[in-house]
């Protein structure tokens, strides 16, 4: 089988979890087209949790690879950059004032992922810049606040700009630090919010 489909040689548990995260992103895109913000928030939050889980499993099972890193980055770009941008365009509008911050967010996410991949071999004990899944959850928080608490939509645009700047900033976050546990907790909270609030 691997002779005809060589990429299957990288089929391990962490990469399967990453793929589940990507499928969650596809589900989010579907519900976005259906204007179901509740399910979009659910699936993007679930994908962010899968992103945390795949890294944890790769370390524990000692199955880290360049393939897994590339797979993870591609998944992150789609789920955590493209989908949040589309959420803004669908739920707020597509005026230039809305498109520019959304595009800025996507470009910052792209550069953050490229920088991460370019420096991964240095094996630093910290992340430089806010990881893309964390930025996505910050973006979703702003969308949820506008949706549920009737806050002015400009809060979403401000969150996009702030999240974008944090992703490409020099801020250092320890790998596995308290901030990561808070992000994980917020992911579970959003899953709950998507259904009960």
Textual characterization of the structure:
Helices cover 75% and strands 3% of the residues. The protein has helices spanning 13-33, 37-60, 66-91, 96-119, 132-149, 154-168, 178-196, and strands spanning 126-128, 172-174. Strands 1-2 form a two-stranded antiparallel ribbon. Helix 2 (37-60) packs antiparallel against helix 3 and helix 3 runs parallel beside helix 5. The longest helix is centred in the middle third of the chain and has 26 residues, at 66-91. The N and C termini lie far apart (47 Å).
Element layout with pairings:
Elements: H1 13-33, H2 37-60, H3 66-91, H4 96-119, E1 126-128, H5 132-149, H6 154-168, E2 172-174, H7 178-196
Antiparallel strand pairs: 1-2
Helix pairs in contact: 1-2, 1-3, 2-3, 2-5, 2-7, 3-4, 3-5, 4-6, 5-6
Question: Care to give the gist of this entry?
Answer:
The protein has 197 residues and is mainly alpha-helical. Helices cover 75% and strands 3% of the residues. It has a single domain, classed as Four Helix Bundle (Hemerythrin (Met), subunit A) (Up-down Bundle), CATH 1.20.120.
């Amino acid at each position: 089988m691997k002779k005809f489909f060589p990429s299957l040689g990288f089929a391990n548990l962490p990469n399967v979890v990453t793929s589940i995260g990507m499928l969650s992103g596809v589900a989010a895109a579907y519900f976005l087209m259906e204007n179901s913000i509740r399910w979009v928030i659910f699936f993007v939050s679930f994908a962010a949790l899968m992103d945390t889980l795949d890294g944890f499993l790769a370390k524990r099972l000692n199955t880290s690879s360049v393939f897994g890193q590339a797979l993870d980055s591609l998944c992150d770009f789609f789920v955590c950059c493209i989908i949040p941008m589309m959420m803004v365009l669908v739920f707020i509008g597509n005026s230039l004032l809305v498109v520019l911050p959304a595009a800025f967010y996507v470009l910052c996410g792209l550069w953050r992922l490229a920088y991460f991949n370019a420096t991964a071999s240095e094996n630093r004990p910290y992340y430089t810049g806010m990881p893309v899944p964390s930025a996505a959850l910050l973006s979703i928080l702003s969308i949820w606040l506008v949706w549920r608490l009737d806050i002015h939509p400009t809060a979403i645009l401000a969150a996009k700009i702030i999240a974008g700047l944090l992703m490409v900033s020099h801020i250092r976050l320890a790998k596995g630090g308290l901030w990561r546990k808070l992000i994980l907790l917020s992911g579970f909270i959003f899953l709950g919010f998507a259904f009960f609030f």
